[in-house]
Amino acid sequence: MMTRPFSSRAFRPHLLTVVLLASMVASAQSDDDAPIPYGDGDESATDKVTPKKKKKRRAAEEIREEDQEEAEGEESLANIDDPNIGIGGEIMSGVALLDSSKGGVDPRYYFGLRFTWEFGRLIPDEFLREMFFMDVTWTYAASKDGTTQVNVDTHLHDFTLAPAFALPFGNKSPLAFYAQLGLGFDYSYSVTKIDQQTVTLGGTKFLFQYGIGLRGRPAVVGDGSVRIQFRIEVTRFIRGYMHDMYIGGGIGMIF
Amino acid sequence: MSRLISPPSPSPRGALALGLLALLCACGPATKAPQKVMALIPDEAGAFQTTQIELTTITDITALKGDVVTMVGSTRVILDANDPVQMLNGGIAMQTDAQRYETIVKDKGSDVRAHYVDKSGVLWPDDFHTWNMVTTYYNFERSYLYFNDIYDGIDPKELRPLRVHYWSEVQLNSPPVTDNMLYLSFIKSFVVTPFQSEQMIPLSMNIGVVGHETAHRVFNFKALSDEGIHPALGTWSLEAFNLLKSLDEGLADFHGFSVTCGEAAGCRPNFLAISLADSRTVGFRNVGRQDACMDEPLRTAFQNFTQAQWIAAPELYKVGNLIAASLYQAGNKIGKLEILQKALIKAYDDESPTTPGLRQLITKNLNTPRNFTPEAVVDVIAAHVTDPELKKQVCQEFSTRMQLRCGAWPCTLDGLPAMQNCPATARRDAAICRTLPQP
Asked: If contacts are CB pairs under 8 Å, which of residues 73-132 in chain A contact chain B?
């Protein structure tokens, strides 16, 4: 076990409270356990016992303080073991099974960008800090349909903010299963061409996102401060009353 | 004045729950007929434009369902003579409508989900299929209104609702059908198939084509007794069969043309020209063709082609065009198209013993198809034209263009009086079509 590298001032007031509470309990316990003095009216006899009690209380305080400090030390160790600050980005790609207005799905290629913040790192607990992250995502898919004379180009831009809950496959495993929920909006614009005439139309729709995936973040450098981030995922977007499914993945870096 | 009682508002938690409920419901825009929506409609010059229309019969603008049309998406319609299910109970001809639908429509599909952007209360289609489906719905609604008018006071309940399989995979004992729109009487449904080669105005965006197909439904209901597979089409052959098929096509072309007359672009007798690249087909199916005449090769085919040959041959449509062109010319020359349209509907089905309709003619001659002749058919039509001038013109046009055996009246065929409903003033016009020698 390493020695305590630094003290945590932030936890001082809490520590004090804990110590005080602990000392009160310790004090109560010591009162019960203390030998009952003979009632000879000799006050000095009591005075002789007092230093023994203080010594015991001090020992309890020290033990609890050490435990607390040890816990703090372990939290800090989690940061040292993985000094990654949890900010990253990746490019995404895959197949978008767009809900087709004619019924069924309309398979299209999609791509996008995603920025990730592992906000779980705000949590001191070594396990919990690996479990939470949040994505800000932009995806783009397009479809073109029709005849040469009458056709429509439709472009879909989906923007979402989606927190996720991850379950690592084991302690310190770079792989995790995750589930995600998000909200955002879809901006779509279409270009309708009839002969030489062109009509452009744009509009936004509320977007609800949910999905699951597999996320890996293997270290690139020895201390783990730079990692590759990749995902394989299935995500559904409720776009107004349309239900789109995106099957794909992403790859990028996280620091 | 301040409000003393405010309406109850949902708590934040309640509002969240309502929001989630609305999200899960994932409903489309509310529908209130008449629904304002944009469609692709030809303007007065005939150029297709994004045009604001009102759908008056719609009840669900997302699923495109209404009193007149029920649209179904992505179905699979497979007619397969080797399918054991379709051979049960003596084959599909012996099955009920419901059984046939069950066995032939292999994939029942699902509701369509038209996708819009709302602009100040007007819904704008946001993708190609929504444009196509909305325009298709509008075309069916307009076709329905046309038939509602010419039914002349009789409720066309058989046209409510018209089931449209949109973007359906269709195989009729053959590879998948593309670039087409059909009425399939055996499943009582219209099918819009995917397009592959045709790159012009999609067929279902063409109101003339939709009117044509709706006319098939009317003919099937009235003249063919609403039979999914009429016995005459199974047992007749040669001229009787060929005439029945061409009559159906010709009347459908005439009504298709007639439906176009109600639109801003006006009457378009050559309505197929905007959708089909094959100029030869477009040419011989032009309802307004002045030189539409039976020639010797066509007559030989008409009299001698078998069922299989006829349904695969362009001659089927060429004879159909002679029927459509005869009606077009008769109605236009006199300027009484509407009277003619109404007369045709009456002629489809008439229980009167003095003026029996086509249905009665077909039913009566199920076992004597030789009596189902062009002369007999034209006589039924003439019997239902009340306007004397129009009646005479109808007899003349048919006699001239189809080379009927009656060219002057009174007419006797095989020793019996024929085409008794044509007036004595009617005459074949050799200036329009050269008179062919009678066989």
From this structure: 99-104
